[in-house]
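Sample intake sheet
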Amino acid sequence: MKSYTLYLCLLLSLIVNASEIPHLKVTISPAYLDSMYAHGDEEIYFPAQLKVDTSVFNVKVRFKGSTSLLYPKKSWAIKFENNLNPFRASRINLHADYKDYSSMRNFLLLRLFDHLGMPSPQIRHITYEVNEQPYGVYTQVEQIDEEFLERNGKEAVALYKANNHGGLMAPAVRDEYYKIIWEMDAGTDKNFDDLRRYLNKCLYWSKEDFDNNIEKTINTDNFLTFFAVHFVFVDLDNFTKNIFHWRNQR
């Protein structure tokens, strides 16, 4: 039997020397930065410049998160005009990981998913400064979107993201709640009809129908591996939000 302890030892060997950690610099108007701190929950992007090595990019930035917005060290979303940049992405995320004193849990978790052959966001540690003020160590995490699907050879038929701890494996109590609980990050199912049908099957199928059809409906190995890894890392924040469902066929 494969041991997760062995996997963690393998992953620890991938950690880079601190001297090799990239450094990112953002320059933003102090007035815009004040507005971010005052209204971070409004998800408003503000213009800024990002310096990566010797290259400077015009970007838009905002704080990201929900309960994490209450912490003194904020997570950031950085949006580019296109993906013609060193990250080959239109958006990157800088996670503060404020409650993870090691700054290693998400790094090891995503590296473990990658080692297991599951599509997972690219992640690395960086140091960060804003307006020449050091903000410390962050994890730079790839955004899960159409570009992520394309990088992993997946068609962007539908991609749903769960918010607000409402992403249970069950239908919403009322139809209008779907647009509150879920975001549509790729595809055209703006009314969440496909997601609604999928969750109704999971809850209302008879045991016989469930046993005969569940493996035709979801990738059960991926599903069980997802929960097993998160239990190993005691990552309880990713069971009811920050999870994605991807529909792989029309």
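Comment: The chain has a mean pLDDT of 87. The CA atoms of residues 89 and 147 lie 7 Å apart.
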